[in-house]
Write a structure and sequence with these properties.
- It contains 6 helices and 15 strands.
- It is α+β, with helices and mostly antiparallel strands and 301 residues long.
- It has 2 domains: 145 residues, PVUII Endonuclease, subunit A (PvuII Endonuclease, Chain A, 3-Layer(aba) Sandwich), CATH 3.40.210; 133 residues, PvuII Endonuclease, Chain A (3-Layer(aba) Sandwich), CATH 3.40.210.
- The strands form 4 sheets. A 6-stranded mixed beta sheet has the order 8-9-10-12-13-15, covered by helices on one side. A 5-stranded mixed beta sheet has the order 1-2-3-5-6.
- Helix 1 runs antiparallel to helix 4.
- It is globular, with a radius of gyration of 21 Å.
- The chain starts with a helix and ends in a 20-residue tail after the last strand.
- The model has no long low-confidence stretch (mean pLDDT 90).
- This is DUF6998 domain-containing protein.
- It holds the Pfam family DUF6998.
- InterPro entries: DUF6998.
Length: 301
């Protein structure tokens, strides 16, 4: 068991190094890996300037002033069907869709005029792929960029094989792995389960798990980190996990969901202020208090 945990720790460090390489090359700007690589590919192919991360409605702009919304998807078995929701067609001129294989090798790039999209939901089928596919031979990447992207993908696949991650939501999956290990929880099989991520098989208590990667870096302002999508959650407890640069757990807290103030726009600092919060893993983040130690659910109220 100790040997397996050592292997997992090593794989997480390797994954951190691979992601750092993509940041250094300008391929990624955040931990939203698939989306970031897709935006990089689209910007390189169409010669686009990527928008600031806070920009709403579009992801990039060309020299002629046209705005682009960019979506990315990793597929298998050449299944190009894609259901995209939440589109605001009035905010962009073109929808770009980048399809990858599991090694993040581009399989297709679509350029769809927004006038072809008449709703917030858009379904891509074989006809759409045929009509709007671009010539992939025009995509120019350096050997260094190609090598680093593939190495990153291989590192991810190794994490997947060990069961540390289940999806492309890498940061969230790693946090769930640590939380379930600490409290002996069972993850919900349905990734789209409304309101909860895990359940205690012992007493039936339910848990929502949120994870943020927090460390000193010029590319992120840690103390502004938010905890999104807490509205409407039905879980009994919220578990917050922080990860350090090497994707190791640097802090973990548990709190009654009912005690959280401002669910719509919560900040990581709710760790310092929420009534009834208890600490599961001591904090390594200076501005997040360790607080009272979790002993049992009897001392939570």
């Amino acid at each position: 068991m100790e040997q397996l945990e050592l292997v997992k720790k090593t794989l997480l460090k390797e994954f951190a190094c691979c992601s750092d390489e993509l940041f250094t090359l300008g391929i990624m700007r955040t931990d939203s890996f698939t989306g970031e690589i897709g935006e990089f590919i689209a910007s390189r192919y169409f010669n686009l300037n990527l928008a600031n991360r806070s920009t709403k409605g579009y992801d990039a702009e060309c020299s002629q002033g046209y705005k682009y919304q960019i979506k990315s998807k990793v597929i298998s078995n050449n299944d190009f069907h894609y259901h995209i929701s939440g589109l605001k067609c009035q905010d962009f001129d073109y929808l770009i869709v980048v399809y990858f294989d599991k090694y993040y090798t581009p399989l297709a790039i679509l350029k769809i005029p927004s006038c072809q999209i008449n709703a917030e939901k858009y379904r891509i089928n074989a006809s759409v792929v045929f009509n709007f596919s671009q010539d992939l031979t025009q995509l120019k990447l350096s050997k260094k960029e190609q090598f680093s992207i593939k190495k990153f993908a291989q590192s991810y696949l190794e994490l997947q094989e060990t069961g540390i991650v289940r999806s492309r939501r890498v940061v969230g999956d790693i946090g769930e792995y640590y939380a379930c290990k600490r409290l002996n929880l069972k993850l919900c099989n349905n990734r789209n389960e409304k309101g909860l991520d895990a359940i205690s098989q012992k007493d039936g208590l339910t848990f929502e798990i949120k994870t943020r990667r927090v460390y000193d870096s010029g590319r992120r302002i840690s103390e502004t980190r938010r905890i999104n999508n807490l509205m409407g959650k039905s879980a009994d407890y919220l578990i917050v996990v922080t990860l350090d640069h090497a994707f190791e757990c640097s802090g973990m807290w548990i709190m009654p969901m009912k005690n959280i103030i401002n669910l719509k726009s919560a900040n990581l600092k709710i760790i310092n202020t929420t009534v009834g919060i208890r600490n599961l893993v001591p904090s390594q983040v200076s501005w997040l208090a360790t607080g009272e130690k979790f002993i049992s659910f009897n001392n939570m109220n």
